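pasting for ref
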Amino acid sequence: MRNALLSILIFIFTMFCVYILNSSILALCDDIKLETENIELEITAGEYEEAYDKSLQLLNLIGEKNLLTSIYLSHQEFDNLLNEAVKLSTYLVHGDEIEAHASLHLLKHNTEHLKKLQIPSLENIL
């Protein structure tokens, strides 16, 4: 009886942790998407200095969530986000609008891909 109760408690604890981590990653993806849209508006307005400041905030946002997301996500997926954020800030320093837009769209695509992976479906399970 003790073993069955212990197994049930461990299962409930595991499901709770997965729910918390999944919610955290979805919130991070939403924050990244919102920041990239703000940066895109700044770039189209020609305000590269403000766009650069926002890209550094985006980089800090991704860096702050590094510990929690790297435990739950594949390192490759998380490293792609981090690398594109670094590229974005570099492109904005040099005023390269075309590459900055490309990097922004890659960030958006990667966050949408991460959100799609976090939704429980038969495709993700298999």
